[in-house]
């Protein structure tokens, strides 16, 4: 159970915003049932972040059922399991990029299509120029 007595106004707002982000991603067909994740810093005062409880669809996520985890993957606040892949991806980013507030890992149909290209996203038309030198790739590891 989330210990609401310890939650600051800033953390509660981040929880509400993150839950809304999950719902927007679902609305825009950027969810993949339970297999992706969005995280947010818990607050500017903590070295923890918020992540969805593993097994919940995006439309089931609320500010109250988000889990607070530390940079080592330990659940600090909340009950449930985390997606280990989500922790590995997001934990590394939150640990090394303190300037980043939110990290999204989605499986949009367009993103899946681009990931099938051997050379990734090529800036072949003006609309893709916004992504030039701003996309990172991680090789499939099985």
Automatic annotation (TrEMBL):
Class II aldolase/adducin N-terminal domain location is 16-142
UniProt-listed InterPro entries: Aldolase-II_Adducin_sf, Aldolase_II/adducin_N, Aldolase_II/adducin_N_sf
Which Pfam families does the UniProt entry name for this protein?
Aldolase_II
Task: Give an example GO cellular component term for this record.
Answer: cytoskeleton
- GO MF terms on file? actin filament binding
SMART domains, sorted: Aldolase_II
PANTHER family listed in its UniProt record: ADDUCIN, PROTEIN HU-LI TAI SHAO
| Name of the protein this chain belongs to | Class II aldolase/adducin N-terminal domain-containing protein
Organism, by scientific name, is marine metagenome
């Amino acid at each position: 159970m989330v210990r609401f007595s310890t939650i600051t106004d800033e953390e509660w707002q981040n929880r509400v915003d993150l839950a809304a982000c999950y719902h927007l991603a679902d609305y825009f067909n950027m969810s993949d049932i339970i297999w992706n994740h969005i995280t947010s810093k818990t607050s500017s005062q903590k070295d923890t972040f918020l992540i969805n409880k593993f097994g919940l669809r995006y439309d089931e996520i609320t500010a109250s059922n988000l889990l607070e985890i530390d940079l080592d993957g330990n659940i600090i606040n909340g009950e449930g399991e985390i997606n280990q892949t989500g922790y590995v991806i997001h934990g590394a980013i939150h640990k090394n990029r303190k300037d980043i507030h939110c990290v999204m890992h989605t499986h949009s149909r367009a993103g899946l299509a681009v990931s099938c290209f051997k050379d990734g996203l090529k800036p072949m038309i003006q609309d893709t120029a916004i992504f030039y030198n701003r996309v990172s790739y991680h090789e499939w590891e099985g």
